[in-house]
Amino acid sequence: MLQKNCYFGKRGCLGDGRLNSGPVVRRDNPNFVITMNKKKLGYLVGFLLLLFVGFYFALTRFIPGYGELQLPVLSYVKSFSFSNQEGKAITEKDVAGKVYVAEYFFTTCRGICPKMNTNMRKLAGDYANEPDFRILSYTVDPETDTVGRMKKYADSLGADPAKWWFLTGRKDSLYHLARGSYLLDDPKNNEIDINDQFIHTQFLALVDRGGRVRKIYDSLKKDELDELGKDIKALLKEKASAPRFANSLFNNNPG
């Protein structure tokens, strides 16, 4: 049925003059254009989101460790040279490209040291077949802990001399390394006469392939030892980075 004053675009009318129960939306109507633009924008955002998710998935699949939370760098291990239980000189070059745990103890200790090294023995067993993992056990009492004594102590733990090194040398060098590199004691204690110094700590330092200290752990706490095991696996997956030049002339803190 035709209606008077009915024209195209008028509410209630069709283009041929017939009545329509609903509104007529014209393509040149601003509201129609805005609606279409919103739809296109939604499609574009959805497409970009899918593209991003796909790209991220590809990176996590083909790049080991990508997307995983990285341990921070706490310090850089300075150069060192000590003798192990076999009388062999061990330097920072021997652990280049390796992941290792550093601890400090003394063979006559009857307190925390036996517990620490019992835990280290388990750790050594867990990674016995891992060619890029080491344990470095430094003495805090080199006057007593000679190469021969360290050898006897290492053998009592069944330590593999190729992977678990018990190190002895000059006391001042051992202590400066513990404080300045591994962060296992307060560096201010270096100001005390070396003959009056004695480090006794249950803490361990985890070092990556590039000679960087990544985390400190309490060796007497099971939950932290569990974290240590997980973190070792994560660092073994990381590619070796070029070691930073570090010596007493430069600040050893990352920055």
Topology of this protein?
Elements: H1 30-62, E1 75-76, E2 81-83, E3 89-91, E4 99-105, H2 112-126, E5 133-139, H3 147-156, E6 164-167, H4 171-180, E7 203-207, E8 212-218, H5 222-237
Parallel strand pairs: 4-5, 5-6
Antiparallel strand pairs: 1-8, 2-3, 4-7, 7-8
Written description of the protein model:
The chain has 255 residues and is of the alpha/beta class. It has two domains: 67 residues; 163 residues, 3-Layer(aba) Sandwich (Glutaredoxin), CATH 3.40.30.10. 33% of the residues lie in helices and 15% in strands. The protein contains five helices and eight strands, in the order αββββαβαβαββα. The strands form two sheets. It has a six-stranded mixed sheet, sandwiched between helices. The longest helix has 33 residues. The protein is elongated, with a radius of gyration of 33 Å.
Mean pLDDT: 83
Going by CATH, the homologous superfamily of the largest domain would be Glutaredoxin
Instruction: Order the strands across the largest sheet as they lie in space.
Output: 1-8-7-4-5-6
Strand content: 5-15%
Class per helix and strand makeup: alpha/beta
> What is the CA-atom radius of gyration, in angstroms?
33 Å
Q: Would you tell me which CATH topology of the largest domain applies?
A: Glutaredoxin
- The termini sit apart by 83 Å
**How would the global form be characterised?**
elongated
Number of strands: 8
Total of domains:
2
Low-confidence stretches: 6-10, 244-253
Main sheet properties: 6 strands, mixed
CATH class of the largest domain: Alpha Beta
Q: How many alpha or pi helices? A: 5
Q: Helicity level, as a percent range?
A: 25-40%
CATH architecture of the largest domain: 3-Layer(aba) Sandwich
Order of helices and strands: HEEEEHEHEHEEH
